[in-house]
Specification:
By secondary structure, the protein is mainly alpha-helical. The chain contains one helix and no strands. Keywords: Membrane, Transmembrane, Transmembrane helix.
């Protein structure tokens, strides 16, 4: 079972999702660090 898709389009979608995920993760870690610094 294989679906023929434009590899470039699929790769682009994965890259965009990966960048968004990294940005959200970095922002969450950043806010956690800022919160800890603010509490201290």
């Amino acid at each position: 079972m294989s679906i023929q898709l434009p590899t470039d389009a699929l790769l682009g979608v994965f890259v965009i999702l990966d960048l968004i995920f990294c940005l959200i993760l970095m922002r969450r870690i950043h806010w956690n660090l800022m919160g800890k610094v603010g509490e201290a």
